[in-house]
Amino acid sequence: MSRLQSAAAVTTVCALSAAALLAVPLAATGAELGIRINEVESSGGVPGDWIEFVNTSDAVVNLSGFVVKDNGDDESYVFPDGSLVEPGAHLVLDEAGAGVDGFTFGLGKDDQVRLFDQSATLVDETAWTAHAAVTWGAREVAGTVEWAETTESTKGAANVFAPEAPLEGSIVINEVDSQPADWVEFYNSGDAALDISGYEIRDNSDDHRWQFLPGTEIAAGGFLVVEEGTIGLVDGVETAFRDPIGIGSADRIRLFDAAGAMIDDTLPWEGHAAIDGDSAAATLARCPDGEGAFVLAHPTMGGANSCVMPDVVVNEIESNGDATDWVEVVNSGSTAVDLSGWTIMDGDPVGHAAETTPLPAGTVLDPGAYFVFDQPKDFVFGLGNGDTVTVRDANLNVVDEHVYDAHAEGVLARCADGSGDFIDIAVSTKGQRNACGNAVRINEVESDGGSPGDWVEFVNPTASDLDVSGIVVKDDDDTHSYAIPAGTTIGAGGYLVVEGADLGFGLGDGDTVRLFDGGLLIDSTTWGAGHAATTWGRCPDVTGTFAVTAESTKGEANTCAGEIEVSPWPGSAEVRVLDTAPNFLEDSSGLDVQETADGSFLWAVDNGEGRIWKLEAHADGSFSQIPGWESGKRVRFQKDASDPGAAGPDTEGITVDGDGAVYVASERDNGAKGVNQNTVLKVDPEASAGDLVAQQEWDLTALLPAVGANLGMEAVQWVPDTALDGVLFDDNTGAAYDSTDYAGHGDGLFFVAVEDNGHVYAFALGADGQATLVSEIAPGLAGVMALDYDSVLGVLWAVCDDGCEGQSAQITLNGTAQPGLAHFARPVGMPDINNEGFATAPASLSVDGERPVWWFADGFASEALRVGTLPGVTGENPGENPGESPGENPGENPGANPGEDPDDATDPSGLAATGSEVPVAMIALALMLVIAGALVARRRRHSA
Asked: For residue 473, which of 425, 545, 428, 524 has the smallest C-alpha distance?
C-alpha cells in the first residue's frame, strides 16, 4: 500500500481559512518551492512521533522523491510518487509502527528534521535540544520564521501559541504637509491606545509651541492628524494650531511628551515638498509608517504612507551563466541617489534575511550610472530558475522588483536600457549599457599612429556567426557616419576591423566611437584628452571596461596590463568524478592530505554546518570510507559547547599538522552570517564519535584585511618549519624566515587565503592563543579558494574557483619578498565549477610517474570530489608501499636541519604530507616543471 494511501501515516489537510492563515503567516523558509517544516512532535504523539509540513505558496507543491532525515544520514524517508500538497494545506508524516506506515527513525530529545529535494539540496531544517512540553511549531515574527513551543498539538492544522505580552502604545511623527495646507500626522505602532494629553508640537523654534488637549488619545495602530484649525492649548488657552505654528519651506517638526522631553524629530528640511513642481501633490513622510527618515511622498492624510521611490531600477539580472549571480541597477533619474543601507533580496525574504549585506554608508549612484549587487559581496543566496529580484532601501521599502519565470539563456536585461521590458539577450554587460539590439561590440580603437592609420575593432561575443550588415559607426559628430556593408558577418568569438580609410573620418584625441543598430545606440566608448599610448580597448578582452591596452592587437584578443600568463595544467588533461552518489553535503569546501605509517588520508570539510570527513586515499585517486566517519563529524565553537543546535562555524578550509591535529578555517559564524569573523579552530579528530568542540581558537580578523562577511578566509594549510626556514620571506624582519624567532608556535606555520583580495598570509599560532602575522604573499589571482603544500615539488599551490576559470598559482619560496610564481589553467577535462578544495598526493602514492590530485566543488551533493594527476616520482613504484614515508634516506633530505647528523634524522611517519623531507630528485623535477611552465607561459593568453 502506498504511504499516501494510509490516512494514519500521511494526512493532507485542506487549505485553511483566511483568518487562520493570518493567525500564522505562512512565509516560506527553506526554498522557493513554498514548502516548509511547520510542527514537530518528538515525544508522546499519537500514534508516535510526527512531522507536519505546510505549503505556504499559492501553487500545488509536488513532494514526490523528496527526502526527510533526522540529524543522521543512516535512515531516511522518501515521499512516494503523487505526494501533492495543495496551496495552504498541511501534510503530516507519522512515525512507522503499530501498523502505521511512515518514517522509521525516531525523533530524539536532542535532534533535527531536515527536508531535501530530489537532487539532495537542503530545502528546510529545524533542530531542538529538548522535547517540547506539547510540540515545537513555526511562526512568523517581524518577517522571520522562528520556532517556539506551542500551547496545544494541532496536527494537520494551524499552530497555536501562547499570546505574547501586549505592546504599549507609542507615538511618532509620520507625515508632514507644508504647502498648500499645514498639517502633521502622528502614528501609534503599538497595540494599545496612548494618552497624549499635554504632549507638545514645536517647529524649528522653541517659541512656537502647541499642546494637545487633556483627554487626547491616539488609538492602537492608528493615525492622528493635526490640521491648521485643530484646537489645542498655548499657555493654557485654547488655540488653533495655525496660530503658533506655520510650517515653512525650511523648517522642522518636533514632538515633546508632557514632561518636556523630546521624543521625535523630523530633522530640518529645505524647500516645500513637490512632485513635478506641484506642492499639493507631495508631502514628507516615513516609509514604512513610523520608521526611518522622512522622504518625498504622495499625500495620505490619516492613512498608510505612500513614499516616492528613487528612480533606480533593476536593469540586468544574471542568475545562472556567470561565475557569480548578480543584479545590475541603473539610476534613470536626474539626481544622485544615496544607496547607503540598500539591499538585494530574492523570493525568500524570510529564509534569506541574514544572507544579504547592506551597502556601506556613502554609496552614491550618480544619474545614468550603474551599480552591481554581486555575489557573495552583497548577498550569498542564489538566484533560482524562476525567482524574484527585489531592490530595497535602508528601511526595506521596495524600490524596484522584477519577477522572472526561468533562467535566461544569456542574461535578462531591459531593452531599451534602463526603461524597456526585460528580454533574454546573449551578451552580459555587467555594470555597463545593456547589449540591446545587435550583439556586436566595440573592442579596440586605434586613434593615433596605427598601421596604416586609425581603425576600430569590433567583436562578436556570441557562440554563433553574427550578421552586422547595416550597423552604423559614428564618432562624436553625427555627420560622421559609416554603415557596415551588407553581407558582413563576424564568426563566433571573432573580430572585425574597420580601417580609418573606410570610415571616411578620423578619430581625434578626446573622441568617441558609437555604434548604432538602426536608431538604437548599442555601444559606445569615449577616451579623454590625448590619445592612448598603445590602443584603447576592453580589458579583459570582449567583456571588460575600456582602458589603455598593453599592446596593439589588431584583429586579435586584447592584451591588458597586469594580465596573468597561464600555462596548461602540468598533469593529466582528464579528471574523473569519485562520488557519483552523495557522500558529502552540498557546501563542500576544503581538502588536505595526511600521510602516516598507516597510509594516506584525505580530509574534507563542508562549510554549511562545519562537518569534516576522514577518507582513506589510494594511489589510483579513489577513496574508501572509514568506519565511524561515514557521516563526518561536526566542528563547533567553544562558545557553543553546550548548544548543539547552534549554527556553527562557516568552515572553508581544513589542514592537519605533524601531530595529527586537525585545523579548520572559518570566515564567520553561521549563526551571524552578516559578520566577518576569521577564526582557526583546532580539534582532536578522535576526541568524540560525534561533534568535535574546538580545543583552541585563534581569531585572525584584526590581523587580516577588513572584508565583507563572506569574503574572508577561504583556506588554511599547515607547513612545517623544515620546509620554510631560509626560504619564506619574513615581513617582520625583512629577511628569510627563522623559526626560532617565534617561540611557542609549534613546528610549523599556518597559511590562510583571503577570498576578497586573493592574498595568502602566513601565521605563527601560539600555544597561548596569540597569532603573529609572518608573511604576506600575492599569488596573482583574483581570489584564492584553496591552498595546498605540495610535498613532492616543495611548492605552495593557491587555487581559484570559477571566478577566474579555475586557474591556480604555484608559489616557490626563495627567501625574497618576491617568490617565484607560475600560473596554470585547470585541466581541460575539468568543468568550470566552484572548486573550493584542492590537495596533492605525497610521493608515496605515485604510480608510474604520476600521483593523484583532488578538487572539491561547492554546490554539489554528488559529483563534488574529482581527481586528476600531477607528475610523481620515477624509479621504484612507491605506490606499492603507501605506508612507507618518502625520502627515507636522510642523506638525501635537503629539509634536514643544517649541521644535523644524518644518522639522527627522524622518520616523519606521523607527519601530514607537507614536504618536510623532499628528495633531491624532487627538487630537480620541480625545477624542470617551473622552467617548462615558464616557456609555455610565454604564449600570450587569449581570454576571448
From this structure: 524
